[in-house]
Amino acid sequence: MFTYIAPCHFGLESVCRREIYDLGYDIARVEDGKVFFLGDAEAGVRANLFLRTAERVLLQVGEFSAGTYDELFEGTRALPWEDYLPRTARFWVAKAASVRSRLFSPSDIQSVMKKAMVDRLRSAYHLTVFPETGAAFPVRTVIMKDRVTVGLDLSGESLHKRGYRKLVSKAPLTETLAAALLLLTPWKKDRILVDPFCGSGTFPIEAALMAAGIAPGLNRTFTAETWPQLFPETLWQEVREEARGSISPDIETDIQGYDLDPEIIRAARENARLAGVEKLIHFQQRDAAQLSHPKKYGFVVTNPPYGERLEEKSALPALYRMIGERLRALDSWSAYILTAWDGAEEAIGRKADRNRKIYNGMMKTYFYEFRGEKPPGRGERRKEEP
Predict the structure, then answer these.
(1) Is 177 strand, coil or helix?
(2) How far is C-alpha 279 from the chain's CA centre?
(3) Can you say how many angstroms the Cα of residue 89 is from the centroid of all Cα atoms in its chain?
(4) Cα 235 vs. chain centroid, distance in angstroms?
(5) What's the pLDDT at 115?
(6) Which of 17, 53, 215, 234 could form a disulfide with 180 if both were Cys (CB 3.0 to 4.6 A apart)?
């Protein structure tokens, strides 16, 4: 059994936790921006392929306290690196982060830890020089209040890189954040979903991947695929086959995306094609002011401009008033709006039923929930955080 770490967006730990639990694994603990869980080798493979909201998957090598560089060296050296790294391994500390700790220089932390790892492996393998010609083993460490957590990065590139988004708009929303926000809503694949500010199509594409049961990591590779002593090749093959078997390609959906820019719409269509969901989404060049739909009980899930990169702040009140007008016309619909502009509720003209603070990178944003009517006979209940 291993302990794994799934870093995720701050404020969305509960969504990631629920995903891991639904995969069948026990949660060890949850911290700000991280979910720790327990599992065998298959758990590491399945987490990389199936988790929609985690930024990456780490295998925890160990934890210890360190307030000095000597303590950091000794603590790192005490970890059983030879259990994970073969004698030809190419290893380095790819990232070091420090929060409210006495050790705060990332480059010094990385250097000291690398030396300690070399010292440990030199003794374990009776080598004086490491060839480092084999598989890559990137290490990531976080020091929080002098507590050091060390993990091997199974994913390599961040899991938001699904492999489908070759073309992006000016201010793209990451795939992992879009998936997490969708999972916070009660939207299901048989319900209408419209993003009137779709950009390169992230919300609609992530919704379509969920609807079709397509695993987000199915079309990419992972660093741990080159670690057969820990994660055998046959295991990756078996889990990928499981993922392919779970796809429902012939479902019918009503998922739409609008954008005024024809080039952006072309990019969104190409991204959807690469994701294998182009038949499930209707993208169109259309002004958000034309937002309408003949059916009831749909969902608007969107990330409108909020003055940081795409619009001048002076234009925001009129833009959000227009959003409010269109939502009032769709009076049975629910709307979920991610924005960094704190005047959104007032301009929309309605107090949100719920407002969550979510950090998009270092930017504080708000995810406003405006709930509409429930379809008759559904008895639908909104998902709550576990």
Answers:
(1) helix
(2) 24
(3) 28
(4) 23
(5) 97
(6) 53
Residue with tokens 């576990």: 386
311: Cβ–Cβ under 8 A, 6 or more apart, which residues? 305, 319
Q: 3-class SS at 284?
A: strand
Q: Residues 7, 57: contact at Cβ < 8 Å?
A: no
Token pair listed for 14: 């509960």
Q: Are 44 and 57 in contact (CB under 8 A)?
A: yes
State the pairing for strand pair 363-370/334-339.
Answer: antiparallel
State how far the Cα of 351 lies from the Cα of 275, in Å rounded to an integer: 36
Return the amino acid letter for 350.
R
Q: Which residues of the chain have pLDDT under 50?
A: 311, 380-386
- DSSP annotation of 7 reads E
Q: Count Cβ neighbours within 10 Å for each residue of 261-283 and write b for 16 or more, e otherwise.
A: eeebbebbbbbbebbbbbebbeb
Integer Cα distance of 311 and 305 in angstroms: 6
Find out whether 150 and 72 touch, Cβ atoms under 8 Å: no
Residue ranges of domains in the chain, CATH in brackets: 2-153 (3.30.2130.30), 175-215+242-370 (3.40.50.150)
Q: How many CB atoms lie within 10 A of CB 22?
A: 10
Q: Is the pTM of this model over 0.90?
A: yes
The whole-number pLDDT of residue 363 equals: 86
191 burial level (CB within 10 Å; 0-12, 13-18, 19+): buried
Residue with tokens 């010292």: 119
By C-alpha distance, which of 342, 355, 350 is closest to 321? 350
**pLDDT value of position 257:** 98
The residues, any chain, with a CB within 8 Å of residue 279's CB and separated by 6 or more, are: none
Q: Which of 70, 69, 116 is nearest to 92 (CA)?
A: 116
Residue type at 260 in one-letter notation:
L
pLDDT of residue 99: 94
